[in-house]
Structures are given as C-alpha cells and as structure tokens.
Amino acid sequence: MNRISVFLSHSSKDIEKVRQIRDILEVLDYEPLLFHLKCLDDDNVSLESFIKKEIESRNIFIYCKSENSESSKWVQTELDYIRSFDSKRLFTIDITLPFKDTLVQLLQSITDIIKKNRVFISCSHASPDKEFGDCIEKFLTEQNFDVIRYKVLDKSHDFEHKKSLVEAGTFIAVVSRNSLGSIYCKSELGHALHNYNKSPNTFSNKIIPIYNGISENLVLDLGAFNSSLSHFRGIEVPYGDSLPPEKEAELLKLLYNN
User: Fold this and answer.
1) Which pLDDT tens digit goes with each residue over 153-200?
2) Run of H or E including 209
C-alpha cells in the first residue's frame, strides 16, 4: 500500500499541538503536511494558490479545530476550498481537548481514513475482464488507494474474503457478460449489498458498478446482479481490457463523492 498523504489544516498559533499530531501520523506511516505561516500577510495571492495546489495533491484532510483556527482567515479559506470539491475526505479533531481525548478522535479518524481508502474490485477471471481488473487496480494503486482483489478463489478463502468485503470502503463491481455468469462475482456483490444495506448513507460504504461492454439497462432488463444496482451511479465503458482516461476521471469523482 502506498502512503496516504494528509493535509493538516490548522492555525500557526497551535503549531506545537499540531506537531504532535504530525508526529503520530508519521509513526503510523502516513505522510502529513503542515504549514507554519506566521510571518506572511493575509493577502498573499501566490501563497493561496500554492496552498490550493498542495491541497489538491493530498488524499485526506484533517482540520485541527481550536479557537485560533476558527478565527483564522487562512484556515477558513483552506476549509472552504476543501469542502468545495471533497468534503467527505475532511475529518475534524478538537485540539483544545486534553491530549488523550484528541488522540482518541485522531485514531477514530484514521480508522475511517483506512476504510475510505480501501477498494475491493470484483471481476471475472476470464479475459478480457482479468486484464481490465489489472488496469483498474494499477490505476487506483497509483492514486494511493489500498486495493483488494482476489485472483484465486476457493472455499478455504471464504472467511478472509468476507472480512475483506466488510473492511473495504468501496466495492467496485465490474459487470460484463463473463461476470453475469460468475458464481463468485454474484456472491461478492451479494455480500457487498448486504454490507451497504446495513449503513446505506455512509461515505465509507459505497458500491460502484463499471459496465464493461454491456449497458446498465441490459443488465437490469436481464434481472442479473439484482435490480439493486440501479440505486448506484455507475460507469459504462467499451468492451475491452483498459479504462479510457476520461473514465478514470469519472471513477475518481465517484470514489471521492457520494
């Protein structure tokens, strides 16, 4: 798994407390970024542009909340920008609490971060689905997602398999003529739907269908994979073993938003 990059939004007046948060994240093998901007004026346009670029390059955002940060123009600008495109990856911890309580909040946030960053890919092992799955796995790994994909399945893996489905924040179902006939793909989707139905409104529990060379309407007409797929926004791609660039962008948008 690649390191998850974390942007720490905070007031420079709280820098000592925030450095403690940064140190914990580094010990846990995250890649935190914080700025100590005590000597810059409030109207530095080039700095604002620089910070926005740094925000865009991060996977996760942690807001270190305090009276100082609530009254900071820079912090509120950062938060407004983050919320404008991806509020679901923003976590808040209250650094005015006793440190042990702040630590509990941080560890809970990290648990949520891990789940949201973990993607389970379900696809047929027949060509070209296998190669298409390889392509998605490679792309998401490059985007710092933790990808789970079973390439060899048998009954001895059932417990581990189901556990992985629960632990993943996103379930990607590659729907094709091959997967429509796969017992394993149907079983994986059934477990994913069960997990989703237990908490359907949480960001860290979503299903994304990718229709490979088959239309969503055809799948629903066939009654295959349950009509439940109609509840989820999906992507249709030409039949093949690769994900076109414009579809990569569409997939990221679905991963990062409801």
Assistant:
1) 555 556 677 778 778 889 999 999 898 888 888 888 888 888 888 765
2) strand 206-212
Per DSSP, the residues of 51-89 read: HHHHHHT-SEEEEEE-HHHHT-HHHHHHHHHHHHHHGGG
Nearest to 120 by CA among 78, 152, 166, 82: 166
Per-residue pLDDT at 49 exceeds 60: yes
139 and 94 within one domain: no
Dihedral sign of CA atoms 164, 106, 28, 15 in order: positive
pTM of the predicted structure, to 2 decimals: 0.68
Kindly calculate the radius of gyration of the chain based on its CA atoms and give it in whole angstroms: 21
Which one, of 64, 61, 75, 76, lies nearest residue 103 by Cα?
64
Least confident of 16-30, 31-45, 91-105: 31-45
Task: Write out the two tokens for 116.
Answer: 């949201």
Q: Which are the contacts of 241, defined by CB distance < 8 A and separation ≥ 6?
A: 127, 128, 131, 132, 134, 135
Q: In what order do the strands lie in the sheet with 206-212?
A: 146-148, 118-122, 170-175, 206-212, 235-237
Are residue 126 and residue 66 in the same domain, yes or no?
no
Measure the CA–CA gap between 124 and 181, rounded to whole angstroms: 9
Together in a domain, 127 and 89? no
Cis peptide leading into residue 128 (ω within 30°) = yes
Are residues 218 and 124 part of one domain? yes
What confidence score (pLDDT) does residue 39 get?
A: 44
Query: Which is nearest to 103 in space by CA: 93, 115, 113, 114?
Result: 93
CATH number at residue 233: 3.40.50.10140
| 63, 93, 114 - which closes a domain | 114
